[in-house]
Write a structure and sequence with these properties.
alpha+beta, four-stranded mixed β-sheet, three-stranded antiparallel β-sheet, 21 helices, 7% strand, flat
Length: 511
């Protein structure tokens, strides 16, 4: 090991010790200057603002936002606590998002503190915080979520802006649906004589079908001689029925997203032109598209795959070259796994064409697809056998995305809900678009979510007699952008229009 390598190794040991202690936001004083400058030069840390850094990967390209988005919340928790000595709290609106598990990175994070200076502090990638000089809510109204000081949910609902019900209806209805009793909200309303807010919340609870809570708020306010005018703050009624005791806000959020997005899908996706009567012809057309589909789907994921390799895999004549760590070997394993999964997906497509419910077929088959995708990589020793156990066991992040997929426990609530929604959905276009989108929004696996999402899309295509459809690698940037818009802004229309533009203008087999 040469002198430069030894010095870098020593610096990395310092960084490793900080990370082992759980440190994400690194202050200048925590690293010796020479170590800090060396790590910065070689790309192992990035400066967020003067005197504050985050760990990074040296192979990140200029402009890559992944390390920042994955560090954002932990960084903000440490930075704000250091700067304001724990005397700070996030806004009611942001508090609501975090309470329901929505950890989307905001463009600007609103913070209140008696020590605030009423101006923004710029961070990486056009993000910032804006600290407003305001007194804090009462101590009993503040919770801590993963180091972030937030309003407790009842207080956040009372103190959030009326505009939030229009701007973020999915998040607001999800939050309201987690309230199972009027008492916590009512005590805050009574303590502050909040008659107008009470009227807004009564209307909001009625909007989601929680009439008992609404009635109890009205009775409590009336008993205190406070006059309440009921006012529904939402722009429209919701078409989702909540159970009285839905424990998971994640389940409610998925159902609300589905209900809100489906009309945009129906308005922007072509109706199927007929019914498949010749299943064999349809399946032959699927086979004809395998090489093109595999090439584009794997290329979107960053694998360097040639059409020749794909043909070799299909014929059974492929041989991986080089060491287990070689890129060529990884690409070959990915191609072999794709072929095995494609075979499994075709069985599911046939079952749907034969009249079986697409949501039920997917629920039964999707784990087989995943096992097929990664079976060759396990056999080759590239990944551990335990990685095939099922849904991920820890957090996962999407490169360049401000959307943070839900935690592992939420995944286990959300996936059965997705299958139920697909099984219940009557419109095939909605199954196609939202089946793909909601799956990658949940991101249930550590790897392979994009490929699985496109397989789901095409299974749902078959359920509506649409042809097997390929997402071309040449449009990868556009594809990722419209998925990001749907995830972060809850706007499904651009993604719907993107998929619609890929459809072939032809009749289904046998029509």
């Amino acid at each position: 090991m040469n002198d430069v390598s030894q010095k870098l190794a020593a610096s990395l040991e310092q960084l490793q010790q900080l990370q082992a202690s759980g440190c994400v936001a690194i202050q200048s004083k925590q690293l010796d200057r020479l170590h800090r400058e060396r790590l910065l030069k070689h790309g192992f840390i990035r400066e967020v603002i003067r005197g504050w850094y985050i760990p990074a990967s040296p192979d990140e390209k200029p402009g890559d936002s992944t390390s920042w988005y994955t560090s954002f919340w932990d960084f903000c928790a440490a930075y704000l606590s250091e700067r304001f000595n724990q005397s700070w709290c996030l806004s009611p609106e942001q508090s609501i998002n975090l309470h329901i598990g929505d950890r989307t990175v905001p463009q600007q994070l609103l913070v209140r503190s008696p020590k605030g200076n009423n101006k923004p502090t710029s961070f990486l990638h056009n993000t910032s915080i804006f600290d407003v000089r305001l007194s804090l809510p009462a101590a009993e109204h503040i919770d801590s979520l993963d180091g972030l000081n937030v309003y407790c949910l009842p207080a956040a609902l009372v103190y959030c802006s009326p505009r939030q019900f229009i701007a973020a209806p999915v998040q607001m209805r999800t939050a309201l649906s987690t309230v199972t009793d009027a008492s916590d909200v009512l005590s805050i309303l009574l303590a502050g004589n909040h008659s107008v807010v009470a009227g807004r919340l009564v209307g909001a609870f009625r909007n989601i079908g929680r009439d008992l809570i609404a009635d109890n708020i009205l009775k409590g306010m009336s008993a205190a001689d406070l006059v309440v005018q009921q006012d529904d703050p939402f722009a429209e009624k919701v078409k989702v029925s909540f159970g009285r005791r839905d424990a998971s806000p994640y389940v409610n959020r998925i159902r609300l997203m589905w209900a809100q997005m489906r009309e945009g899908v129906i308005a922007n996706f072509p109706e199927p032109v007929g019914q498949v009567t010749d299943i064999e012809t349809y399946m032959a057309e699927v086979d004809d598209k395998y090489v093109t589909d595999a090439y584009h789907s794997l290329s979107i994921e960053g694998y360097r795959v040639t059409r020749e390799l794909i043909e070799l895999v299909r014929s059974g004549n492929w041989q991986a070259e080089g060491s287990d760590e070689s890129r060529k070997h990884l690409d070959a394993m990915a191609a072999k796994g794709y072929w095995d999964a494609f075979v499994a997906v075709k069985k599911a497509v046939r079952a749907v064409l034969e009249g079986n419910n697409a949501g039920n077929v997917l629920e039964q088959a999707h784990s087989d697809w995943y096992l097929a995708l990664f079976g060759p990589s396990v056999a080759a020793g590239i990944i551990k056998q335990s990685d095939l156990a099922g849904y991920r066991l820890g957090p996962v992040y999407i490169r360049q995305s401000m959307h943070t997929p839900p935690n592992r426990d939420a995944v286990r609530d959300m996936m059965p809900t997705l299958f139920d929604l697909l099984a219940e959905e009557e419109n095939a276009a909605v199954r196609v678009v939202l089946g793909h989108f909601i799956f990658v929004y949940i991101h249930p696996y550590s790897d392979g979510n994009g490929r699985m999402g496109r397989f789901i899309m095409n299974l749902m295509m078959a359920s509506g007699s649409y042809p097997w459809t390929v997402v071309p690698v040449e449009r990868r940037a556009e594809y990722m952008q419209v998925l990001e818009t749907a995830s972060v802004k809850q706007d499904i229309v651009p993604f719907t229009q993107f998929l619609a533009s890929l459809l072939e203008k032809k009749s289904p087999a046998g029509s």
